[in-house]
Write a structure and sequence with these properties.
Strand order of the largest sheet of chain B: 6-9-10-3-11-12
Shape of chain A: globular
Strand content of chain A: under 5%
CATH topology of chain A: ABC transporter involved in vitamin B12 uptake, BtuC
Shape of chain B: globular
Oligomer: heterodimer
Number of helices of chain A: 13
Number of strands of chain B: 24
Largest sheet of chain B: 6 strands, mixed
Distance between the termini of chain A: 18 Å
Distance between the termini of chain B: 34 Å
Largest sheet of chain A: 2 strands, antiparallel
């Protein structure tokens, strides 16, 4: 019963939210506005997919916003130096993956709590991005690169949406269809039990952080394409939105729980909330308060579920 | 308690159970794991609220919504899992929430009086524990005694004891029984939960047997023989708890040579052959758990070698051990065994997910088929592959974890206290599974503190004392007394021990 509620609640909230906003402002349902929501949430959703994997395995990564900025800057610098957009995107992916590798190695090999490691990494990656650009935006990117964010397929499907769908499918396959996915849930549920069952825990933990880093890199490339510049200040505060998307979608801060579909809904709730607030003329300051409150509510709900489970178990 | 009904997530765990405990009597509550004993007692202690039924204290209905309500009515509970604050001292724990105060409105704790009161209480009970010691530094047994002291100091009408002797020595158990008789004289009702029928005989006045959340017997202690009680608990005759085995000895599968870990075990050499069950006996702290964990590679060793099927295996690497056909059923299934929020099927297949994979993907069909097969083989209840593993009873969790190594196709099984905290019927199931393993050509090393179990199951018994192997006995010819003599022989002599640390305890129910 409670499992069912937990699954259904995020979806019901999303529907209720859409109905409320549409009732107050019919423009919300226009094709243009919905495509806008998709575009705006794409970056968060892509990172949130990777975050789902890391959080299911019992980890967390606070440095995703900085990873994304650094990756975007590296990609932009490559292209500004004359590289084609494909090389720029690959550069961004590789940079993100390298950041993830560093985080994962510190967490798995040195056994430092991920919260601390990635809190430090958040400052380091941002600092490197600012140093590399002297704090200024990287300009002079090829016009064709902009299509990564603003392009449309068949005239109405925003390109970032295609990335979201592809990344979501890939992540879903990883989590629910592969051996790594099984291990991911097991490690998050009880890391010692996984080790005693012969799972190479460190290796998988590192892989999950690399996966998340690469997705943050992809998000960085899309963000640069949207701005047609490489911004060292991009993605500030995104870690909060990304983690919120996962938690709202049923992911647990203590690991072992979470799903791609849930995160997708969580991310959409965040996106619709912010779009609706804009349409209704609510200031971005108030939005921050609302988002913060939603996160606290989601975590509280998760906590109560967990406690109920634990009392039931005992 | 009258007609108590309780459901968790749709499962009825108690169906109209009644329990009457009279002043000045010890009421024994027995049943298999998962029969509902602990749940019933947690309802009495105000931890859970029942869906139906009522609690009557001295004839008047009482409604408990939290543990404090139960305490107000004079009902105190000693939990199976310890619930003390490790950083506080013994005295602070005993009087937690009821500290003697100086300058009462300011809430300043009178430390001296606190320690004196606690000291008096402990010495009245015959427990030799320093009231000023932080609880975190005490042994498991001493912590249990503190827990008992706290609950009995609080109780005015009813004390509930859930498996209170599981970590106590024979001497301490004796002290506890003296205390229980004292509580009876003071007119309290004691509800006593235990798996150990022998010890219940010493103190119980009445008996209630639960099975599958129902009350199946209520009567005066002594009306039923132990065999009849077990039959009520299990609902069927347990013909032979240690079934016979016909296994042929084969080649050496596991060889351990001079394995050493400073301060834990020293220069341990033994081997196990296909078709053989080797028992490892010893007192708590003799180094048996550390030894099997080092053989498995989950804990490091300082020296020595382990050979599996003749090939050397040294690195502290459980993944390699599993790959070479070694499986370890750990002593602490909560910490190192179960993934509690994952399904039964996923827990069962965890050590061999590779067998479910075809073309990069895990096949659900294979997973379910594997889970069904081992559920059937080990009689896991409920037989539901999608059941969340943490919601299974202890015995069924243990069966799932044993099934994990069966599914992994292990050839050498290290079983560390495989039946601890497991009910009689699940025990028999585990014994039968171990026999089938040996008959199928596996080598089994079984650590156990339950001597009848070792004598009944093992072919050879290796005895460890203070980190060293001191004897090898033929299980068919030896006696409990002989094993115990080897295990405890030099306890009082002044020879320098290989293992530093506290006093050695024998914790088996001999």
């Amino acid at each position: 019963m409670s499992d069912w509620v937990k699954r259904f609640l995020p979806f019901a909230s999303l529907v209720a939210l859409c109905v409320c906003i549409a009732a107050l402002e019919p423009k919300f349902l226009s094709a243009g506005n919905l495509a806008g929501v998709a575009r705006q949430t794409a970056v968060i959703t892509i990172i949130a997919m990777g975050m789902t994997v890391v959080m299911v395995s019992g980890g967390i990564d606070l440095s995703v916003g900085s990873e994304m900025a650094l990756a975007g800057v590296v990609g932009a610098l490559l292209m500004a130096a004359g590289a084609p957009p494909s090389v720029g995107v690959l550069g961004a992916l590789a940079t993100g993956a390298a950041c993830g590798l560093a985080n994962g190695a510190a967490v798995a090999a040195l056994r430092i709590p991920p919260f601390i490691v990635t809190l430090g990494a958040m400052g380091i990656y941002r600092g490197v991005a600012l140093l590399a650009t002297e704090g200024k935006a990287v300009v002079g990117l090829p016009q064709s690169f902009g299509r990564l964010a603003e392009g449309e397929l068949l005239g109405f499907l925003p390109v970032p949406l295609l990335f979201v769908v592809a990344v979501a499918l890939l992540t879903h396959l990883l989590l629910s269809g592969t051996r790594a996915g099984r291990y991911c849930y097991a490690i998050g549920s009880n890391v010692e039990a996984a080790r005693y069952a012969g799972v190479r825990v460190s290796r998988y933990q590192i892989t999950f952080y690399v996966f998340l880093g690469a997705l943050a890199g992809l998000a960085g490339a899309i963000e640069s394409a949207r701005l047609v510049t490489g911004q060292p200040t991009a993605g500030e505060g995104y870690e909060l939105r990304v983690i919120a998307a996962v938690v709202i979608g049923g992911g647990s801060l203590s690991g072992g729980q979470g799903s791609v579909l849930g995160t997708l809904i969580g991310s959409l709730i965040m996106g619709v909330l912010s779009n609706g607030a804009n349409l209704l003329g609510i200031s971005s300051f108030t939005q921050q308060i609302v988002i913060g409150a939603v996160i606290v509510l989601a975590v509280t709900f998760d906590e109560f579920q967990r406690r109920r489970f634990e009392t039931a178990v005992n | 308690m009258r007609g108590i009904t309780k459901r968790f997530a749709g499962n009825t765990v108690l169906a109209g159970v009644s329990l009457r405990a009279a002043a000045g009597e010890v009421h024994a509550l027995v049943g298999e794991n998962g029969a509902g004993k602990s749940t019933l007692m947690k309802i009495l202690a105000g931890v859970h609220r029942p869906e139906g039924g009522e609690i009557l204290i001295e004839g008047r209905p009482a409604h408990f919504t939290r543990p404090a309500d139960a305490l107000t009515h004079g009902v105190a509970m000693i939990y199976q899992e310890l619930s003390l604050a490790p950083h506080l001292t013994v005295a602070e724990n005993i009087f937690l929430g009821r500290e003697p105060l100086r300058f009462a409105p300011l809430g300043v704790v009178d430390k001296r009086e606190l320690n004196e009161k606690a000291g008096r209480l402990l010495s009245d009970y015959g427990f030799r524990i320093d009231p000023r010691a932080p609880v975190g530094r005490l042994s498991a047994a001493d912590r249990q005694l503190v827990e008992i002291a706290r609950a009995t100091a609080e109780a005015r009408r009813v004390v509930v004891m859930d498996e209170p002797t599981s970590s106590l020595t024979a001497h301490e158990t004796g002290e506890l029984f003296r205390l229980i008789r004292d509580l009876k004289r003071r007119g309290l009702a004691v509800v006593y939960i235990s798996h150990r029928l022998e010890e219940l005989g010493e103190i119980a006045d009445r008996l209630t047997v639960l099975r599958d959340g129902r009350e199946v017997y209520e009567g005066a202690w002594g009306e039923l023989s132990q065999e009849q009680i077990i039959r009520h608990m299990a609902g069927r005759e347990l013909k032979e708890i240690f079934p016979p085995r016909e296994a042929k000895r084969g080649e050496v599968l596991l060889r351990v040579e001079g394995l050493t870990r400073a301060g834990k075990f020293e220069d341990v050499t033994f081997e196990a052959r296909a078709g053989e069950v080797v028992g490892l006996a010893g007192l708590a702290g003799a180094g048996r758990t550390e030894l099997v964990e080092a053989v498995f590679g989950a804990q490091p060793a300082d020296g020595g070698e382990v050979y599996l099927n003749g090939s050397k295996f040294a690195a502290p690497d459980p993944a390699r051990a599993v790959g070479l056909g070694l499986g370890l059923l750990t002593e602490d299934r909560k910490r190192t065994g179960l993934c509690p929020d994952q399904t039964l099927a996923r827990n069962l297949t965890l050590a061999n997910v590779g067998a479910l994979v075809k073309g990069w993907l895990v096949r659900r069909g294979r997973e379910r088929k594997a889970a069904r097969e081992y559920i059937e083989r080990l009689h896991v209840r409920p037989p539901d592959p999608d059941k969340t593993a943490g919601r299974l009873s202890g015995g069924n969790q243990q069966k799932v974890l044993l099934g994990r190594w069966l599914f992994a196709g292990s050839r050498v099984f290290l079983l560390d206290e495989p039946t601890r905290g497991v009910d009689v019927a699940a025990r028999a199931e585990i014994y039968r599974a171990v026999n089938r393993l040996a008959e199928g050509g596996a080598a089994v090393c079984m650590v156990s503190s339950d001597l009848p179990e070792l004598l009944g199951m093992a072919d050879r018994i290796l005895v460890m004392r203070r980190g060293r192997l001191v004897a090898e006995l033929d299980a068919k010819r030896t006696t409990q007394e002989e094993v115990l003599t080897h295990a405890a022989l030099e306890e009082d002599r002044s020879e320098p021990p290989a293992v530093a640390g506290g006093p050695l305890r024998y914790e088996a129910n001999v």
